[in-house]
């Protein structure tokens, strides 16, 4: 696909993050090497504070990719990236707070991070925030606001938001 071609070209041009991705996926003539990919993401994150490298360290720790699985450490990396405005890290961090995974459960904090990610255009966070408002999870229950967030997520093509939006219409809430 086009994204892979671009990442491979960036790797060939010497962009370290692209090279790490090539090791992560086994692209661009590189063997799949999760340990090397993780080491590269971590080095980039530590040396440059590049938010996407911090996010990828979180992903690696969350899923045990190239490193032992450790949700507490994943939360630490997601927090670093989220604090720099990385909306996917914000959504992942919110999910950790919502479920108490790697961090003490805190529904208010979860809703806060979902809100930040949703406001930055992350469609899954829009859906998740809609669920928070529909169920009163970390926020006051508000079906009108839930409907608004489901609509925004659906407009971006997020299928779970479309489904919940459909239920809103079916139940006369839309």
What do these coordinates show?
The chain contains 10 helices and no strands. It starts with a helix and ends with a helix. The chain is globular. The protein has 174 residues and is mostly helical. The chain has helices spanning 2-12, 16-25, 34-48, 51-63, 71-83, 87-99, 107-119, 123-135, 143-155, 159-170.
Number of helices: 10
Count of distinct strands: 0
Unreliable residue stretches: none
Spell out the helices and strands N to C: HHHHHHHHHH
Mean pLDDT: 94
Which value, in Å, is the CA radius of gyration?
A: 18 Å
As a percent range, the share of helical residues equals over 70%
What's the assembly state of these chains?
A: single chain
Structural class: mainly alpha
Principal-axes shape call: globular
Biggest beta sheet summary: none
- The separation of the N and C termini measures 38 Å
Beta-strand proportion:
under 5%
Concise synopsis of the structure shown:
Helices cover 72% and strands 0% of the residues. With 174 residues, it is mostly helical.
Write the topology of this structure.
Elements: H1 2-12, H2 16-25, H3 34-48, H4 51-63, H5 71-83, H6 87-99, H7 107-119, H8 123-135, H9 143-155, H10 159-170
């Amino acid at each position: 696909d086009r994204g892979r071609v671009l990442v491979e070209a960036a790797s060939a041009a010497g962009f370290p993050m692209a090279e790490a991705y090539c090791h992560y996926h086994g692209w661009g003539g590189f063997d799949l090497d999760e340990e090397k990919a993780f080491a590269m993401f971590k080095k980039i994150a530590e040396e440059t504070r590049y938010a996407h490298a911090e996010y990828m360290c979180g992903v690696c720790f969350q899923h045990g990719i190239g490193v032992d699985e450790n949700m507490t450490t994943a939360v630490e990396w997601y927090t670093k990236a989220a604090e720099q405005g990385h909306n996917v890290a914000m959504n992942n961090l919110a999910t950790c707070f919502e479920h108490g995974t790697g961090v003490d459960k805190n529904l208010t904090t979860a809703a806060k991070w979902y809100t930040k990610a949703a406001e930055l255009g992350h469609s899954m966070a829009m859906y998740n925030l809609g669920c928070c408002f529909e169920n009163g999870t970390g926020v006051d229950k508000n079906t009108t606001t839930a409907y608004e967030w489901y609509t925004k997520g659906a407009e971006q093509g997020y299928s779970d938001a479309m489904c919940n939006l459909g239920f809103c219409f079916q139940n006369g809430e839309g």
